[in-house]
Amino acid sequence: MASPTVNFETVTFVMKTFVNDLSAYSSGVSERQIGWYNDVLPASLRQPHHEDTLAVVVLSTPDMFERAFLPFMEKGCCQGVSDPIDQCVKHTINSSFPGKKVEVSYDYEMLPASRKPKFLAQTAAHVAGAAYYYQEADVTDHPWGDKKKFGVCIHPRFGGWFAIRALLVFEGVQVGCEVLQSSPPDCVPSREARIQLLEDFNLRWQDWKYRDIIPPVQRYSQRQRDYFSTRPAQRPALLQEWGFLQKEKGGSQLEPPPGHGPQHSSWTSPRD
Ligand code: B12
């Protein structure tokens, strides 16, 4: 076992602070070692860190919208052209680890050369033990032939009502056998339910149904659903209507960047 260069309690405490700030609760943050993630991925997608390095996956819980995002907007912290939710998550993470040597990758970031995601959020959530990642391979004798179905993570308490926001890597903090890898709870064990889940996620995700594959303890509020169901370009207007965004002379305080088509702007990335 390698000895930690930073006191593990301190790391745990900082994570608790973060949990409060982002209104996630205890399982909103899951620790893991980077080696568990790299073990299931090809070389091109691995994290360039020693296999015993401490890593943390950050999930946002259903009440993040009311408890972190709307107050963030109300305080006028949101500026510029990037997506307000992304700004809120970034602000919370940055203010939770002042002075800590932590490398943060956000779910929407791509590697410049390959245009592949900086980290695979679902794989990370699974190996962290936070949320089971159901993939085609988890359905025996699946009925889809060569029609690819994207996989989806289900959280044992929130079902599908959460998002995976970031990967934090504590460079230089090495953990060994004191952190045991725990499998995420398999809350969708039957073949039929897994087929239902993957079809709902791939074919009709807009109706929110896949998120209820197990009864969740909490769902997104109606207001949050209205926000995410609104086209990103129209979201500033909605926030203004709700009184969370001031209208500025000559346009709104927040606007998607000019010249960015829907497929290129971070305002449109489909991930909430
Ligand atoms: C690109 C992307 C999309 C693309 C393509 C989807 C895809 N999965 O490729 C599009 C635009 C279609 C899309 C759509 C949606 N997306 Co999207 N998307 C992403 C994004 C940014 C990257 C996914 C990706 O490219 N993966 C690369 C592929 C190759 O990875 P993979 O299929 O998992 O394969 C790897 C694993 O199989 C692993 N592996 C191999 N063996 C094993 C074994 C084990 C045990 C494990 C764990 C892993 C493992 O190795 C493979 C790679 O070699 C992620 C965020 C992120 N940074 O990860 C969100 C993400 C997957 N999206 C998400 C969501 C919610 C959506 C939407 C519902 C939109 C929305 N607004 O809500 C829709 C639904 C899908 C649909 N019907 O189209 C969520 C899913 C949350 C969840 N509960 O799982 C994510 C995680 C974003 C988030 N912040 O939470 N998305």
UniProtKB/TrEMBL annotation:
It is found in: Cytoplasm. One of its GO terms (molecular function) is cyanocobalamin reductase (cyanide-eliminating) (NADP+) activity. Its main location: cytoplasm. The keyword NADP applies. The keyword Cytoplasm applies. It catalyses: apo-[alkylcobalamin reductase] + methylcob(III)alamin + glutathione = S-methyl glutathione + cob(I)alamin-[alkylcobalamin reductase] + H(+); apo-[alkylcobalamin reductase] + an R-cob(III)alamin + glutathione = cob(I)alamin-[alkylcobalamin reductase] + an S-substituted glutathione + H(+); 2 cob(II)alamin-[cyanocobalamin reductase] + 2 hydrogen cyanide + NADP(+) = 2 cyanocob(III)alamin + 2 apo-[cyanocobalamin reductase] + NADPH + H(+); apo-[alkylcobalamin reductase] + adenosylcob(III)alamin + glutathione = S-adenosylglutathione + cob(I)alamin-[alkylcobalamin reductase] + H(+). GO terms for cellular component: cytoplasm. Keywords: Cobalamin, Cobalt, Cytoplasm, FAD, Flavoprotein, FMN, NADP, Oxidoreductase. InterPro entries: MMACHC. Its EC number is 1.16.1.6, 2.5.1.151. Its cofactor is FAD; FMN. Residues 249-272 are annotated as: Disordered. Pfam families: MMACHC. GO terms for biological process: cobalamin metabolic process. Residues 263-272 have a biased composition (Polar residues). Belongs to the MMACHC family. This is Cyanocobalamin reductase / alkylcobalamin dealkylase.
